Amino acid sequence: MAEQASIPPSPAATARARGNAIARTSLAAMAVNATLALLQIVIGLLANAFSLVADAMHTLADLSTDAMVSWAGRSAGAPPDEDHPYGHGRFETFASLVLGLVLLGVGCGFLWAAGMRLQALEHAPPIEPAALVMAVTTLLAKEGMFHWLRRRGRALKAQVLEAAAWHARSDAASSLVVAIGIGGSLAGYRFLEPLGAALVGFMIASMGVRFAYRAVRELVDTGLDPEEVARIADAIRTTPGVEDLHQIRTRRMADRILVDAHIQVAPRLSVSEGHRVADTVLARLKERFPHLDDALIHVDHENDTTRPPGQLQALTDRTEVVQDLRALPAFAAASPDWVVLHYLGGRTYLDLLVPAKHAPSLLAADRAALFSQLDALRQRHPDLASLRLFVELAPEPGTGSEKLHQISANEVPPPPPPAGNASL
Question: Which of 141, 229, 232, 299 is the most exposed place for a label (fewest CB within 10 A)?
């Protein structure tokens, strides 16, 4: 039996799977924190180690943070809806911001507590050795959870899990402070606890500032790093059909990338072919950058960043051209069914196709009179740089193919271009 080709999961399914993985990871961290907090409270009360009880309160406070991580993971994995057309990735970014602020607050709290403890060393209560065992056990458990959460965060590219990992490191640091304080108290060196608390407080506050800063940058739509933007631009420029790239904007949404780009294609390309080039660019970007969520590709026929404002709107409009063509005697019974306007370099280029059923009457018309009428049309629209007239001929016997007869545009000399506007 032939093996069936595997169908890749949809982006929505991938986002849901990632969100569920983040939620499961945070729930496991919550279970570990709850167990440690319960043991710390029991042993802290029995061993007269109030610092251990305080650390347990800190651990219980972390449970609310873990709950926020779980909520953010599930919310960010939800598919786009009417109210959130770009998805819910910013929920994860917001949670990272909150966690960063929490880390900053915890760090400042350690710094303040360290100063208070240095002023009241003589009031430290006697501590039982069992408290030191619990403090070291908590320290090892929290440090192990830090490495596990950070590894999961990098694997899932989830900033919120990396922030939670550093929060676990802050918990381990607080447990280290408690262990040093308890050990110092047992050995007679009580000043070690507040000094360690001050050092750890500075480290935690620095991490909080870093995570909050990254989240704020994403919330205000800061672009990607220049190196990553250069790689995206190179992928666009080397796509077949793209002649130039003159504008690119990027931003992040959680682990996803959003791109807006203006590409330049051949000036006389059809709309459908230009759209095909844009689709090719999008497919190439998604192939080379797996975390690209979407790219809005704007197709230009020329570099519009150098075009004077309002230039296109000042050129001849299709409605005006069609109206004037219908008013010409030569086209009274031979109306063209294909009118194409190209706007290039501030000028208008007009192509006309007369269908085969009207070809005999047009070809039998007085050529001089026809050219006179077309010249009048050009005089009415001074921005017309050229006018090409094509006549569709009936299929030749036995060929089944149609031919086009072009009445050369050279037979209708173009007017001189306006001053300061080069003829194309």
Answer: 229
